[in-house]
From TrEMBL:
<dbReference type="InterPro" id="IPR012349">
    <property type="entry name" value="Split_barrel_FMN-bd"/>
</dbReference>
<protein>
    <submittedName>
        <fullName>Flavin oxidoreductase</fullName>
    </submittedName>
</protein>
<dbReference type="GO" id="GO:0010181">
    <property type="term" value="F:FMN binding"/>
</dbReference>
<dbReference type="Pfam" id="PF01613">
    <property type="entry name" value="Flavin_Reduct"/>
</dbReference>
<dbReference type="InterPro" id="IPR002563">
    <property type="entry name" value="Flavin_Rdtase-like_dom"/>
</dbReference>
<dbReference type="GO" id="GO:0042602">
    <property type="term" value="F:riboflavin reductase (NADPH) activity"/>
</dbReference>
<dbReference type="InterPro" id="IPR050268">
    <property type="entry name" value="NADH-dep_flavin_reductase"/>
</dbReference>
<keyword id="KW-0560">Oxidoreductase</keyword>
<dbReference type="GO" id="GO:0006208">
    <property type="term" value="P:pyrimidine nucleobase catabolic process"/>
</dbReference>
<feature type="domain" description="Flavin reductase like">
    <location>
        <begin position="14"/>
        <end position="158"/>
    </location>
</feature>
């Protein structure tokens, strides 16, 4: 299997593998930036750390990668519209209707979210056109939990009933 075929195989393999949905936001000198990710994972409890990946070091991803700190929001089903908005370049973001506030530390926080983790990058590893970030958790903001959301086959979906 050549590299091109392996890449297509990887896309196909993960297309039907559900992932949680996160929204990462940061404040930059140019203003707030944010992007939707489906790669947030817990790494360690001691020290508290998580990981995620972004596909380019430009635009919103570049802003997050250069920021001193950022917020990793773990989204649920009521946030599908916001997840879609932040997944598409050029969409209107950080509107008052979406429910944003600025933390005293400067990062944009989505108020109506089940959990938002304030983080600082510990390690960044470039892999092709992607960057894997390992981030230390500095603080947590908890809200009311709602129905979980997943990303599968390029769509945001409800998780459904327990097995």
């Amino acid at each position: 299997m050549n590299e091109f075929e392996a890449g297509d195989a990887l896309k196909r393999a993960f297309r039907d593998h559900p992932a949680g949905v996160g929204l990462i936001t940061a404040q930059t000198p140019e203003g707030p930036v944010g992007l939707t990710v489906s790669s947030v994972a817990s790494v360690a409890v001691d020290p508290p750390a998580l990981s995620f990946s972004v596909t380019r070091a430009t635009g919103s991803a570049g802003g997050v990668l250069r920021a001193d700190s950022f917020i990793v929001h773990l989204l649920d089903a009521r946030h599908a519209d916001i997840a879609q908005t932040f997944a598409v370049s050029g969409t209107e973001r950080f509107t008052q209707e979406q429910g944003w506030e600025m933390l005293p530390s400067g990062e944009p926080l989505l108020r109506d979210v089940r959990v938002a983790l304030r983080c600082r990058s510990l390690h960044q590893l470039e892999v092709g056109s992607s960057v894997i970030v390992v981030a230390g958790v500095l603080d947590a903001h908890f809200g009311e939990a709602h129905e979980p959301m997943s990303y599968i086959d390029r769509e945001f979906r409800h998780l459904g009933d327990k097995i």
